[in-house]
Design a protein that fits this description.
The structure is a single chain. The protein has two helices and twelve strands. The chain is α+β, with helices and mostly antiparallel strands. The longest helix has 22 residues. The relative contact order is 0.12. This is Ricin-type beta-trefoil lectin domain-like. It holds the Pfam family Ricin_B_lectin. It comes from Micromonospora eburnea.
Length: 246
């Protein structure tokens, strides 16, 4: 005969006891069970997409991509403005050639000389009885002393012209610088209105230039007849201003 049960009061007999999950008592079994549970949970997370392979690095890669795109979008460097071409030095204007002035012709040397008008071929003489103020005129060339003039240098290339017949000098009336003033003879005093220079007029003839006025002795009215008087006028090189020395 069995011993009486010692269950506490109120115990109901004859019913099935409920299922209880109990952990293994063995520590190794517990560790194995924990690893298995962790593996199952990890598989569930991967399957649901909560965790992805390399998921921890993806945001950083995205950030790197954005940064890369931003870096690409920005210009590497501002366009360096091209340096404007320095203008070449302006060409230096060529200096205009200064017209060369022919050197003055030398006065006649070696004794008296005649002044022969180029257009007429007549010689310069003196009208009248050779007083002061007698007009210088054209005359047929005779070779007489009244048609001969002695050149005496006075200043540089200037000279006086003295009539070989009476010793008076070729002179411009009243020391005037006006156009048309008479060329005459007068007692020699050496003033500028009695000083002359020769200027070339082509290959042979010369111009007779008064020092005081810078004007030329010419035959008035471009005359060619005997007795045509001489006067001063602006130098043009016209035939009536050209003289041949002989």
């Amino acid at each position: 005969m069995s011993e009486p049960r010692t269950d506490p009061p109120g115990t109901v007999y004859g019913t099935t006891r409920g299922f209880r999950l109990r952990l293994p008592q063995d520590p190794l079994m517990r560790i194995a069970l924990g690893v298995a549970v962790f593996g199952v949970l990890l598989g569930v997370f991967f399957a649901s997409g909560v965790l992805r392979v390399g998921g921890g690095d993806q945001p950083a890669a995205a950030g790197t991509s954005v940064a890369s795109e931003s870096s690409t979008a920005e210009p590497s460097s501002e366009a360096t403005p091209t340096t404007e071409a320095t203008p070449s030095s302006e060409a230096t204007p060529t200096t205009e050639a200064t017209p060369t002035t022919a050197p003055p012709a030398a006065p006649p040397a070696g004794g008296p000389a005649v002044l022969r008008g180029v257009p007429s071929g007549r010689c310069v003489g003196v009208a009248g009885d050779n007083p002061d103020g007698a007009r210088a005129v054209l005359a047929d060339c005779t070779g007489g002393p009244e048609q001969q003039w002695v050149a005496t240098p006075v200043d540089g290339d200037a000279f006086t012209l003295t009539n070989a017949a009476n010793g008076k000098c070729l002179d411009v009336y009243g020391q005037s610088a006006d156009d048309g003033m008479a060329v005459q003879q007068w007692s020699c005093h050496g003033q500028p209105n009695q000083q002359w220079r020769l200027a070339p007029a082509g290959t042979g003839p010369v111009l007779l230039v008064a020092v005081h006025s810078g004007k030329c002795a010419q035959v008035a009215g471009a005359g060619t007849d005997p007795g045509a008087p001489l006067e001063q006028a602006p130098c043009t090189g016209a035939p009536e201003q050209q003289w041949a020395l002989g």
